[in-house]
Amino acid sequence: MKILTTAMCLVLATSLTACSSYSSRQDSLPRSHVSSRVAAEQYGRVTDIEVVSRKSRTSGGGAALGAVIGGVLGHQIGSGNGRDLATGAGVVGGAIAGNRIEKQRASGDEIYRITVAFEDGSREYFDYEHIEDLRVGDRVKLRGGQLERL
After folding, report:
1. CA geometry: angle at 101 spanning 20 and 59, to 5°?
2. Residue 89 phi/psi, 5° resolution?
3. Domain count of the fold of the chain
4. Alpha-carbon distance 64 to 6, whole Å?
5. Residues 6+ apart with CB under 8 A from 79
6. How would residue 130 be classed by pLDDT, with cut points 50, 70 and 90?
7. pLDDT digits (tens, 9 = 90+) for 4-62
8. Could you list the residue range(s) of the whole structural domain that residue 131 is in?
9. Cβ atoms < 10 Å from Cβ of 149
10. 110-129 confidence digits (pLDDT tens)
């Protein structure tokens, strides 16, 4: 019976983790270039800087950890079929609670969305975590996918 319960906890935790759509690479970059522009070097002017909240996405780690902890705690309750039911409820409840906690910890992240009008008339935007002293009206150069202040 304990083997069945443990296996059920592992399967649920694994399946919850597998459902995650989080891409840690995208959020871990210090700067995210949204443009599809590939040209070697282009010049433009900053037309807008806005602060944008990142969506509170979760990695699934909080849900997985919550499911394991909830399953272990639920397994301590009752006996027989009641224990199995409590373990399952603990897994589900722990996963929900873990996901909410992870989402709350990730909220509040803000990025700067920089809009640039290029000399060819096109407009592109770029997302940065830090913009230092960049201001609207500054002249910039796009080279090799990097935006530089002139």
Report:
1. 20
2. -65, -40
3. 1
4. 14
5. none
6. confident
7. 556 565 655 555 444 444 433 333 333 444 455 455 689 999 999 998 876 655 678 88
8. 2-149
9. 13
10. 788 999 999 999 999 888 88
Residue 16 burial (10 A CB sphere; 0-12, 13-18, 19+): buried
Sign of CA dihedral 29, 35, 39, 40: negative
Structure-block tokens of residue 116? 């640039």
Residue 131 and residue 150: Cα distance in Å, rounded? 14
Please name every residue paired with 123 in a beta bridge, in sequence order, or none if there are none: 117
DSSP character at residue 54: P
pTM of the model: 0.44
Which residues are CB-neighbours of 87 under 8 A, at least 6 positions away?
A: 5, 8, 9, 71, 74, 75
User: Could you give the 3-state DSSP secondary structure of residue 126?
Assistant: strand
Note the residue count of the chain: 150
Contacts of 49 by beta carbon, 8 Å cutoff, 6+ apart:
112, 113, 114, 115, 131, 134, 135, 136
